[in-house]
Design a protein that fits this description.
Helices cover 2% and strands 46% of the residues. The chain is mostly beta strands.
């Protein structure tokens, strides 16, 4: 039994690490809420994305699977067992699920109604990507994605064709823009409201922020905080949620305001979901968790 399952609510709240004022940190979490382990049936969970109804699609990459969590009955169902080894995911404006499917260095598009898919990107200027990892889709339906290199044991005859690891943008015409190289780019999320794009360099232990100044155009790259992250999301107040050992929250100025411990070896990713998008959905190692919040996720 996990430690949070035997503690009372008041005792668990004491485990949250408040790094700023009480109003900025613990007040983000619903007073009567604790992280709840929904399921632990997986090998390694990642890539959660909420659809327009607040249900979450997430990946189990070692098992080449995508699952769906439905908030109304807290159920988990298999969506697909043919995912191209999907990792990060995000919904486009038409409600299709776009995935970073790194088995062959591709981006896939799933129709969530019938489970069918098409490959929307196979190469970058004729070269195989290292392994698309995470993505965010802007108001123009363009895709920002990270391309680190984590060599997988299921890759066949892999030969690195792009020697550096970059942030990219693919527009709706299929044209790709290459941005900066990183040590190991990973988690990514943007804000159409703020005009910001956040990108984590996991091995450099930094998260950067750019200004979005046009379609597929970025400027003013700068360090947002001295922490790398596997995945990330934003709430309606502009706070950024990063993941590695638990979930760490930074305010819009880059000040750490809260740490949410999760009793797993690694916390992979996070998103807002549920009826009112005030449920923090957390993928962590072999499990998934939910946490009731006082804030909602940022609206697209």
């Amino acid at each position: 039994m996990k430690f949070y399952q035997v503690l009372g609510v008041g005792m668990y709240v004491g485990l949250f690490t408040s790094c700023a004022s009480f109003n900025d940190s613990v007040s983000l979490i619903s007073e009567s809420s604790v992280p709840v382990q929904v399921s632990k049936q997986f090998s390694f969970t990642e890539g959660p994305s909420a659809d327009s109804k607040g249900n979450v699609y997430f990946t189990d990459q070692p098992n080449n699977a995508i699952y769906k969590w439905t908030w109304k009955d807290n159920s988990v169902q298999l969506f697909s067992k043919n995912t191209g080894r999907a990792n990060g995911t995000f919904f486009d404006k038409e409600g299709n699920l776009i995935t970073c499917s790194d088995e062959n260095g591709e981006l896939w598009k799933f129709n969530v109604h019938d489970g069918s898919h098409v490959v929307v990107m196979k190469n970058i200027e004729g070269k195989r990507p290292n392994g698309p990892n995470d993505l965010w889709i802007d108001s123009n339906n363009g895709i920002y994605f990270t391309d680190p290199l984590y060599e997988r044991n299921y890759w066949k005859d892999f030969k690195q064709e792009i020697p550096t690891r970059h942030l990219y943008y693919r527009n709706t015409n299929g044209n790709i823009t290459t941005f900066d190289s990183f040590v190991q780019p990973n988690g990514i999320v943007g804000s159409n409201k703020q005009g910001k794009l956040y990108v984590s360099d996991l091995y450099a232990e930094k998260t950067f922020v750019y200004d979005i100044v046009g379609e597929g155009k970025l400027s003013n790259k700068r360090v947002f905080c001295e922490m790398g992250s596997d995945g990330m999301t934003l709430d309606e107040k502009g706070n950024l949620y990063l993941t590695n050992k638990g979930v760490t929250v930074f305010n819009p100025e880059g000040k750490k305001i809260l740490h949410i411990p999760i009793n797993e070896d690694w916390t992979g990713n996070v998103t807002f979901a549920g009826r009112d998008f005030k449920t923090l959905f957390i993928t962590a190692s072999k499990s998934i968790y939910t946490l009731k919040m006082n804030v909602a996720g940022e609206k697209r």
